[in-house]
Amino acid sequence: MNEKEKINLKYYKDRIEKRKFNEYDIIGFLILIRRHLDKNVTPFICDFADGIAHRERDRGVAYNNIHNAYGNNFEINPDGTVKDFYGISDVAWASELNDISIRFNIKITPIVQSEILLCIISIFQYTLFIDKKNQTFNGRHEIIICDNGKLHFCLVNHFFICYAKLDNAVAESKYRNKNLEKPIETFRKKGILYLRDEDGIILKVSKK
């Protein structure tokens, strides 16, 4: 990093470590670190960093997943998973953020990992996946709340396929078993990260 980037990084490091950040900080943080990432080590985070500037995606990890699933007619494997579709596991997410922590000397606790994921989920609401070569629609990012109140970040074509999930947050009852169709946004109140839409608070992130 050059000296200017180091000054900017110091700002985001402070916001993250003190848990003062929201999705708008994460947008700036991902833009800043984007060129310093290794796609072989942090493929999901690199894809999100690239996606900030490109709301219609025709490449990248998420695009490849939905493109493969669509190309396979959403075939289901014997174990119940979708053929050639690989979402973000808890282990993979923790591993990528551990690399970010070491690479940029930022302390990232388990609850911060979840908060960053929620910010990213909010940021990428409505992102589209377009096969520009064939001019076909492959899917979009959407967020659904299951009947148990858990948030699932999905890739959608004709089917909802879970790409990532947030375990340590339970949605308010009125949002359960629903697709979050209205624009959402993260915000903080008394140190806690919340997700809301125009109708009110959807959920908050708590420690596991």
Question: What layout of secondary structure does this protein have?
Answer:
Layout: H1 3-17, H2 23-33, H3 43-51, E1 56-57, H4 61-71, H5 90-104, H6 110-123, E2 128-131, E3 136-145, E4 151-156, E5 160-166, E6 178-179, E7 185-189, E8 192-197, E9 200-204
Give structural notes.
The structure is a single chain. The chain is of the alpha+beta class. The chain has six helices and nine strands, in the order H-H-H-E-H-H-H-E-E-E-E-E-E-E-E. The protein has helices at residues 3-17, 23-33, 43-51, 61-71, 90-104, 110-123, and strands at residues 56-57, 128-131, 136-145, 151-156, 160-166, 178-179, 185-189, 192-197, 200-204. The strands form two sheets. Strands 1, 2, 3, 4, 5 and 6 form a six-stranded mixed sheet that branches. The protein has a three-stranded antiparallel sheet with strand order 7-8-9, with helices on one face. Helix 2 crosses helix 6 (110-123). The longest helix is centred in the first third of the chain and has 15 residues, at 3-17. It starts with a helix and ends with a strand. The mean pLDDT is 93.
Overview in brief:
This protein has 208 residues and is of the alpha+beta class. It is built from 6 helices and 9 strands. The strands form 2 sheets. Strands 1, 2, 3, 4, 5 and 6 form a 6-stranded mixed sheet that branches.
Order of helices and strands: HHHEHHHEEEEEEEE
| Radius of gyration, whole Å | 17 Å
Helix content class: 25-40%
- Give the distance, in angstroms, between the N- and C-terminal Cα atoms: 34 Å
> Helices and strands: which structural class?
alpha+beta
Instruction: Work out the number of β strands.
Output: 9
Share of β-strand residues = 15-25%
* Biggest sheet details: 6 strands, mixed
Shape: globular
